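[job 4471] stage=fold_predict status=RUNNING
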Amino acid sequence: MSEAAVPGQVPQPPPSASVATVEEVVRAQLSKALGGRRGMLEAAVPTLLFTILWLTTRELTVALGVSIGAAAVTLAIRLVQRSSPQFALNAMFGIGIGWLFVRLAASRGGSVDEQALAYFLPGLIYNSGYSVVLAVSCLVGWPLVGFMVGSVTGDPTAWHANRQVVKLCTILTWLLAVPCLVRVVAQAPVWFAGHSGAMDADTAVAVLGVLKIVLGWPLQLAALGTMVWVLSRNSTPVDPAEHVDLT
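[job 4471] inference complete, writing structure tokens
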């Protein structure tokens, strides 16, 4: 039976856990989220195939079919190897949403160019929404990274009683928001220019495809590298009663 929680105190992790600081908690959670080189490839290859095939064949169905097929193959390999299908599923989900937006554009009488541009619209919407959620969570004093700490300690909100933990998690949450903001700032003008005719549609699709890859994992890794650097400098105990060193 677990001990009773003390009001205002962040509960200790279970005895079997070796987590001593917030930094360890966040580093562990981030390592799970990355997926390594394989996870990065599974995310990038379908978009790369879609962009190349659309630009070389102008066959939207072929481009979508091959990108979906590539994601399905990676998922099948994951299942056969009995490894985590998380990143393959993420790729499948992203392509599926892109395909849905393409179908919606077609059903509304959109041209082939408009349909191709529609493939990139979900990413813009996602990054816009995610950056807003992350920013708002910081502005209201409940940074989302803090809930990573809560998922380990067993209490999703008790971490908020520790001002040092809130400060650290706010910095880390802003760092997570930066890649999303950069993607929106870089891609939105291109998408609108292609959609309005101010930019050639093929050029817009090519630029969006390149930006989606370049501003995908590389940008995310840069942000996470900065987070690791921040985490390596600090030692914030999960238990606020312990000594806190934020120098």
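[job 4471] summary: Residues 1-19, 240-247 have pLDDT under 50 and may be disordered.
[job 4471] exit 0
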